[in-house]
Amino acid sequence: MTVVPLRFQIGARTLASVSRRLDRIALSLEDVLTLRVPALPDGAGDGYLVTSLPQALRGRIEAKGRIVAERQCYTRYYTDLSIGHAAWLSSLSGQARSTLRRKSKKAVAAGLEIRAFRTAEQFDSFYPLARMISARTYQERLLDAGLPEDSRRVATLRAAAARDELRAWLLLIAGKPVAYLCCTAQGSALRYDHVGHDPAYGELSPGTVLHAAAMAALFEDRFRWFDFTEGEGQHKRLLATNGIACVDLLVLRPTLANWVVVVALMGFDGLVGRGKKLARRPVMARMVRRLRR
Q1: Is the Cβ–Cβ distance between 26 and 51 less than 8 Å?
Q2: Do 82 and 224 touch, CB atoms closer than 8 A?
Q3: In this predicted structure, what is the pLDDT of residue 293?
């Protein structure tokens, strides 16, 4: 059981958060694909956060009188690595293939170099360079989702490398580390765990270029799937072969405090959702563009 911040977010920006002591029940990709219904263990905290529950199982969670609230809805994307690199490329849209070629060509012209890491000793070389990149990313500044710094989590990554359960890559431009990708194994899947790039090089799309190169290598590796984990994203849609509709559920004890939190979260999320729909209208979109200038 951990203290989980329930965030009031607009995009990547957190406006406020309320903490609750929750058991986090995260379904693996294999759980999702086999439609496994998770059991909620007995707990003394505020409840549970169930992530990546297939929408088809939404009504099969045994709530037992608890408050159940949908926190977010998204597609859990993944790539079937058994089809081979050529078939994967063919599965992408013509526009996607053209985008990858154009971005890769631009990065090569700028002095592209890609390095791969997998052993514990190689991780020792990878980590300090990747940490320098991570410190400059929005994932770390806004989402608290950068490459970990604390020694326990770093040791966990190194131990995964020692078991041949880690794959990592760096992209360098003219010898300077610009983007990183660090993935760990979960069963037959390799997870999209830690990723980031130096925003100063954003025009070169280094994250996309690096991931495309990593995917080419993974089709020759031992993994069955590449798991893009929870959440949406254009990058995931571009490179995935499949996806399954999922939800994250809050399952909370029916206390007054928890009811207040749920009502506030649902009300806020509803307002943000309506705001996004309104912003997509042509008149509002033009106003937003003018404000950004």
Answers
A1: yes
A2: yes
A3: 47
How far apart CA 24 and CA 280 sit, in angstroms, is: 34
> What's 231's DSSP letter?
S
Alpha helices by DSSP H, listed for the chain, are 29-33, 85-91, 94-109, 120-134, 138-143, 151-162, 206-218, 234-239, 256-279, 282-292
- Tell the residue number behind the tokens 């799309």, with chain if given: 205
Single-letter residue type at 77: Y
Answer yes or no: is pLDDT of 289 > 80.
no
What is the spatial distance between Cα 219 and Cα 223, in angstroms, rounded to a whole number? 8
- 166-173 β-sheet, strand order: 2-10, 13-26, 47-54, 242-252, 67-80, 225-227, 189-197, 176-186, 166-173, 112-117
256-279 helix and 282-292 helix, angle to the nearest 10 degrees:
90
Which among 231, 251, 195 has a CA at the least distance from the CA of 52? Answer: 231
Strands 67-80 and 242-252: antiparallel
DSSP state, 143?
H
Nearest to 191 by CA among 90, 81, 41, 66: 81
- Residues facing residue 17 across a β-bridge: 7
Question: Which of 106-110, 255-259, 284-288 has maximum average pLDDT?
Answer: 255-259
Amino acid occupying residue 53: L
Q: CB-based burial of residue 175 (10 Å sphere; 0-12 exposed, 13-18 middle, 19+ buried)?
A: exposed
* Alpha-carbon separation of residue 170 from 87, 117, 134, 280 (angstroms): 25, 8, 12, 36
Residues 191, 197, 198, CA angle at the centre, nearest 5°? Answer: 165
φ and ψ at 209, to 5 degrees? Answer: -60, -45
- The pTM of the whole model exceeds 0.90: no
Q: What does the pLDDT look like over 34-46, one tens digit per residue? A: 999 998 887 778 9
What is the sign, positive or negative, of the torsion defined by CA atoms of 147, 149, 150, 152?
Answer: positive
